[in-house]
Amino acid sequence: MTPILELRRATKLYGGQPAIDSVDFDLREGEIHALVGENGAGKSTLTKVMAGVVTLTSGSMLIAGKEVEPRTPLEARNLGIAMVFQENSLVPSMTVAQNLFLGQEKFYNRLRGIYIAAQQFLQSLNFDVAPTATVSTLGAAKKQMVEIARAVLHNAKVIIFDEPTASLTPEEKKYFFDLVRELKRRGVSVIFISHALEEALLISDRITVLRDGRHVVTDDTSTFDRARIVQAMVGRDLSKTLYAERKAKVRPPGERVLTIENLRMLPMVKNNSLSIFAGQVTGIFGLVGSGRTETFKVAAGVLKRDFFHGGEIFLRGKPVRYLTPAPAIRAGIAYVTEDRKVEGFFETMSIARNIYVGLMAKLGARRLFVRPKETEAVGKKWADALKVRAISPDVNVVELSGGNQQKVVIAKSLVQEPDIIVFDEPTRGVDVGAIAEIHELIDRLADEGKAVVMISSYLPEIMAQSDRILVCRQGKVVEEFSAREATEEKIMYAAIH
Amino acid sequence: MIEALRQFGDWILGRGEASITIPIFDGALKPNQLLEAADVVAEFKEASDIAADSEGILVADGSRVVRPGGGERAGFGRPVTALCVLGDGGIAVALDGKELRVKGGAFDGFASKGPANAPFHAANAIAGLGDGRLAVTDGSLQQPVDHWVHDLMGRGGSGRLIVVDPKDGRARELARGLEYAFGACAMNGDILVSESWRHRLVAIGNGRPRPVLTRLPVYPSRVVPASGGGFWLTAFTARTQLVEFVLRENAYRRRMMKEIAPEHWIAPRLRSGESYLEPMQGAHLRTMGVLKPWAPPRSYGLVVRLSAAGQPLYSLHSRVDGINHGVVAAAEFRGALYILAKGPGRLLRLPLADIEKEAAS
User: Fold this and answer.
1) Could you report the predicted ipTM of this complex, rounded to two decimals?
2) Helix (H, G, I), strand (E, B) or coil at A306
């Protein structure tokens, strides 16, 4: 049977360096094909070639046996290929309906007609998203739903999902998998990129593993297990070290450095109270919408609490209220965002400049002018320390893989030498190799006596990294577990009930 | 003027002193049921303090100092409000909160009424400082010891730390204006004092009081040294937003104090749940469609193990549904921690090994 989509000896060079190198790939009609590999393995580049975002340097692409060369996403869409990107590609200032029909507008476009059509379509997918809502007001999970809906709306024959489940709750994930199976039943072929290997094993028919831009193996999913995938991905057996079931040693609490009392930022944060201690990793778990991110964004001055009776925040016993992030940074609070593309870095600036921006935020008026040599030195120091892998140190951050972008975002905060570091979903969209490195870094920071907060939706990560676990539900902390007593069941129960 | 404007702004916006926020029990103060699991050694009707000598635990019960198993160590004819075992085998007691008296040891018969210009009024804790001097906390100059809740509701701030030297009989006021001083202990040359209404521990030396542990979610009481370094801090009740609110509503509070019997005030208690007239008995929350019973703690029991630097390491709780509330004193003796829960009048015992094992989990 002719594959619906095929790539032969596909090669893409950036600055003379191959991002993918002679990769052969084929996708059968109506199959779910998982594409896995470390960050920088070439998964995104490979799928961007298929989606017309980039073109091949050499090699060929065939659709139903016919050679094609899509040069724009529109051309790819006309060929029946749609891509749901890892970091969403929606226009934040437009409504959900406008985003759904973007590029399909008619000459006399009727907004009301678009809303009605969008409403019917979203209902048919059973997505609880208001078509009139502005995208910027939606949470990550709902944005993801809009992305998926857009791909389905375009009647694509091939849909590429890049990390589709990263921001979804367990219930939403289950629903997403049902949706993917429904697409398969309709004869749509799905390419599924995920770092959650269990998901790849659960949903896919075949798995392809890439490493360092090269094809390693393609086989039926039934022949794989987690260990085999990981070994193929990294060339070494990481399965025993990554996400250990429980910490062997729990760090005792040090000084209480941050106290949040009865914090309110309605409707997300409702009377939330918690303490953060030095020398510990405090894991914060909660479903999307539980107010965990907003609580720490208020503490870091990114968001403002309610004006009336908004609660109190104490830094080392002294009341503080930061209206912007700058004074919080100077006081030693760093917040590493969950949405690195929007809030984490300047994508058209180099690695060094991005890191230097972090330092300038700390120094404020003491550093009025950019010093090129200092920029270079600071950038190199932190890029080396965090093992940021790039073709050249001058590349723009947008050209880095997700894991390396995340390291730049972390370096941008660590250069500020904070005492309290809040990592919000630090390993979302990050490959297993980089996950291990980021986890080592988190451990090291706690060992150095820093107060580390790690917000994560991924229970194995929370269980493996935290000395203390706080569970958020409906805008407040509802339960606290020590690492020794916590189980996935207990945490999830507290998060839901 | 500026301060008045700031206070008015705080009152309007609900910030600062008017924010009515209280810390939660988390970290080392994470709730458990360890105090409820303790053995009940004995029950007393009027117990106010405990201490340990070489033979065992002593309990100040009414006007006597007794052993839990029976047997009177000393009788004083007036209520004993504080008890301390001295290094030379004698005991020091506070009588009716107004007099310090030593019985036995090198200074047998010594008595002091405090500084001549401002004698003791509500002496509630005594601690030996190691050099023969005694530190005495005087909770209030306005209210007697038994009327501690009146002092709280009256926003009292007249507590003092007084050091008495039995050698020359001098009594020196080391600090004043404390918001109910209730417990003292020697700490690296300073004196660690618990200030109940400000929910904190302060170190008092020659200079101004230095905060050691602040923003506690409870009303701290006595603090005693622990074996292996550090301290045991007891707390007799927990803070609630309702009480904090009442404390800020002056007109309401004054009327409540004037018209309602003290046992029915919206105020902390050493024990609760005995009368249907009590406020704050219970409520419910609807969560995820399920009705869940809930009650703010009117009384509570807590013992906190502190490090040598005064930071909490772990804690023992008797929660809102427990009995062993109103914890006012603790003492170690032969590998066990003895705790006085004044609410039910119980002397409790917990083996230290069990506590440490439970705390480590």
Assistant:
1) 0.77
2) coil
